[in-house]
């Protein structure tokens, strides 16, 4: 081996050793959260049904419940969660920089976001699609009637690309009016600046419900994209990734087994070995995730199962009144399929 080759090999080995040493010295997010005693989540600045503070500053929503579930799993207390409101432009940078522990902000999972930003999605907590809303006064019944229309759209979202691609593919034209702020976008739309507005269909329903405008506006029936939404974590943080992913699956598993906030204590007496392991009566799952064996019990007791969360936040028990549809359990025609917790 020549001197040059020896130096190259030595350099590679030294670099690998330095990387391994640095990795070993860098605490995982799970360790950081345990030491801090709080989970920090990036959320929407205000989207009814998903993440919205009330007049007292108390947050609620499907995404808030996801964050609270992780806090319950890791810290045994769902209230030990902090919510950082982020715009569409801020959200991924905040996670990349370590400002937040996880991003759960009605964010669409795409290849670029999962593979190109140093991030990784930890599951899907809501299946959605991009829709359009118009004033009933326009008399528009479908997207084909929006040729040459002015359309409000949020900057830094998948919606910009989707709407441009959809219209171009049908030899139709439109004029986009792009907004950095979601609230400003809706103010402009309701003031008549745009003929239509496009966003996830659930977000459009939320805007109507929270503003009480259902009588004047309608969401068109067509969807132009698939928008699977879910939490993101930093790529390479595998231990933390597992905790976030299985916290979501625990909520789904609980719904599938009929375990609720009201009956979870009674379920501790179950003779079903899988239920015993799920609720931590029999050890194993907690050890695998490096958290307490009662982690899933804490989620169900303090936050509820997925069905309970869905119902109170976006379902028929909420102002949005969204049917389960694709977000139903696989046993009821939906796409929600919990991976076995064993």
From TrEMBL:
Domain of life: Bacteria
Keyword Transport carried by entry: yes
Signal peptide: 1-24
Keyword terms: Signal, Transport
Keyword field contains Flavoprotein: no
GO biological process: amino acid transport
Matching PROSITE patterns: SBP_BACTERIAL_3
Pfam families in the record: SBP_bac_3 (PF00497)
UniProt-listed InterPro entries: Bact_solute-bind_prot3 (IPR051455), SBP_3_CS (IPR018313), Solute-binding_3/MltF_N (IPR001638)
Domain Solute-binding protein family 3/N-terminal: 38-267
Entry's family note: Belongs to the bacterial solute-binding protein 3 family.
Name of the featured protein: Amino acid ABC transporter substrate-binding protein
Gene source species: Reyranella soli
